[in-house]
C-alpha cells in the first residue's frame, strides 16, 4: 500500500502530524509512506523512522509556481498512490491531492474544495478547544475499513528524529562557551510569526533576569526567528545590563542556530519557555519541561502533545471575551491577551515546572 501525506506551511502544524505517521505504520507495517512538505519544515520530518520518502515542495510564486506544481502533479500521479491524506486543506494541497488520481483521497470538507477528495471529513469552523492532533486524527477514521482508536498523548506523542552530528556540534559549541555538565541550561524563545503572538520585550527581559537570578548554575540562551534577531539581541542586552557585571554572563551569546540545532539545545536543557510557535512544538518532541505563553490561541488546541508525565505549563488570560480569535484583526486594538500577561505569572509557572521536574 502506497500512502501520501500532504502538510504544507507551518512548522508547528507539521510537528502535530507526526503521531499520524506512527499510527499509519502501526496499522500497516508494510505500507510505503511518502510525505509532502515545504522546505521550512523539512527538519521536523527528516529522518522520521516511519517515513520511506520525503518530497520537498518548492515555495515559489507566479508563473514559476504554476510550472512547479504541474511538474510535481505529474510526478505524484506517476507514483500511483493508493491513499492520499491532505492534512492541510489549503487550495494548493487539495489540488495536489486531486492530481494524484489516487483511489482514496481524504481531506476536510472546506467549502469549494471538498469535491477534490473521495471522502471529506467535517472540520468545525469555530475555534473550539480541541487539540490539533485530534482534529487531524479524524482523517484516519475516514479510511476505508479502518477503525482507529483515539490518540493517546503518551503512546502517540509528537516526535522529531535526533541528528547525532548536530547534537555533537551543539555540544562542542556549548563547551567552547564554557557550559559544563553542572550548569542548568534554559532556552527562551522570544519571537513569533505575527504580532498576535508576540509577548512584549520588557516582559521577556523580566523573565530572563528572574530565571538567571534563580541560582548561579543557570545559563540562558535566547532563540528567535531570523526576522526577530534584533529583538532577541535587545532583550539579551537589556537583561545583561540589569543583571550587572557579576551575573551578566548567565545570558549566553550562542549565535545563530536552525531547527535541528534548537532541538539539540532543548534536549540538553532544564527548561524551554516560548509562545505558541513552531519552536515550542519542536521542544515538545523532547522530554524537557515547557512553559507556553498563549495569547489569542488556546492551549487546549496547541499545548505540547506528549507524555503528560513530562512537566508543562500554560500561561494565558482566561478572562478576556475576545479570546480566542482568528488573528486577523485585534478587536480591542492593543493585543491585550499578551500585553497584559504579567511576567510574574510566567516566572512563577517556570519555577513550578522546574520544581516538579527536579
Can you offer a commentary on this structure?
The chain has 358 residues and is an alpha/beta fold. The chain has two domains: 2-142, Rossmann fold (3-Layer(aba) Sandwich); 171-357, Glycogen Phosphorylase B (Rossmann fold). Helices cover 37% and strands 16% of the residues. It contains 13 helices and twelve strands. The strands form two sheets. A six-stranded parallel β-sheet has the order 3-2-1-4-5-6, with helices on both faces. The chain has a six-stranded parallel β-sheet with strand order 9-8-7-10-11-12, sandwiched between helices. Strand 1 (2-6), helix 1 (11-27) and strand 2 (32-38) form a beta-alpha-beta unit. Helix 7 packs across helix 8 (229-243). The protein starts with a strand and ends with a helix. The model has no long low-confidence stretch (mean pLDDT 94).
Briefly say what this structure is.
This protein is an alpha/beta fold and 358 residues long.
Amino acid at each position: 500500500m502506497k500512502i501520501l501525506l500532504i502538510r504544507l506551511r507551518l512548522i508547528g502544524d507539521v510537528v502535530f502530524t507526526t503521531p499520524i505517521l506512527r499510527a499509519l505504520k502501526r496499522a500497516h507495517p508494510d505500507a510505503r509512506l511518502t510525505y509532502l512538505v515545504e522546505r521550512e519544515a523539512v527538519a521536523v520530518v527528516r529522518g522520521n523512522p516511519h517515513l520511506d520518502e520525503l518530497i520537498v515542495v518548492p515555495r515559489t510564486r507566479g508563473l514559476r509556481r504554476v510550472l512547479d506544481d504541474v511538474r510535481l502533479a505529474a510526478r505524484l500521479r506517476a507514483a500511483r498512490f493508493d491513499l492520499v491524506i491532505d492534512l492541510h486543506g489549503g487550495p494548493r494541497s487539495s489540488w495536489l491531492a486531486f492530481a494524484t488520481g489516487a483511489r482514496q483521497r481524504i481531506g476536510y470538507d472546506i467549502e469549494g474544495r471538498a469535491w477534490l477528495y473521495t471522502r471529506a471529513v467535517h472540520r468545525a469552523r469555530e475555534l473550539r478547544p480541541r487539540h490539533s492532533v485530534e482534529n487531524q486524527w479524524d482523517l484516519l477514521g475516514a479510511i476505508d475499513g479502518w477503525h482507529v482508536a483515539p490518540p493517546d498523548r503518551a503512546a502517540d506523542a509528537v516526535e522529531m528524529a535526533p541528528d547525532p552530528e548536530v547534537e555533537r556540534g551543539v555540544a562542542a559549541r556549548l563547551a567552547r562557551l564554557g557550559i559544563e555538565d553542572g550548569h542548568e541550561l534554559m532556552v527562551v524563545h522570544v519571537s513569533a510569526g505575527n504580532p498576535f503572538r508576540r509577548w512584549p520585550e520588557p516582559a521577556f527581559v523580566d523573565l530572563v533576569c528572574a530565571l538567571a537570578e534563580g541560582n548561579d548554575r543557570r545559563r540562558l540562551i535566547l532563540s528567535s526567528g531570523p526576522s526577530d534577531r534584533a529583538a532577541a539581541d535587545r532583550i539579551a542586552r537589556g537583561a545583561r545590563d540589569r543583571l550587572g557585571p557579576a551575573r551578566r554572563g548567565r545570558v549566553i551569546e550562542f549565535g545563530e542556530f536552525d531547527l535541528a540545532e534548537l532541538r539539540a539545545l532543548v534536549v540538553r536543557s532544564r527548561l524551554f519557555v516560548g509562545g505558541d510557535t513552531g519552536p515550542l512544538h519542536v521542544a515538545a518532541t523532547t522530554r524537557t519541561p515547557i512553559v507556553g505563553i498563549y495569547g489569542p490561541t488556546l492551549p487546549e488546541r496547541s499545548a505540547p502533545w506528549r507524555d503528560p508525565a513530562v512537566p508543562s505549563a500554560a500561561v494565558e488570560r482566561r478572562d478576556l471575551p475576545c479570546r480566542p480569535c482568528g488573528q486577523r484583526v485585534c478587536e480591542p486594538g492593543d493585543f491585550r491577551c499578551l500585553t497584559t500577561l504579567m511576567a510574574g505569572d510566567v516566572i512563577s509557572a517556570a519555577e513550578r515546572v522546574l520544581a516538579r521536574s527536579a
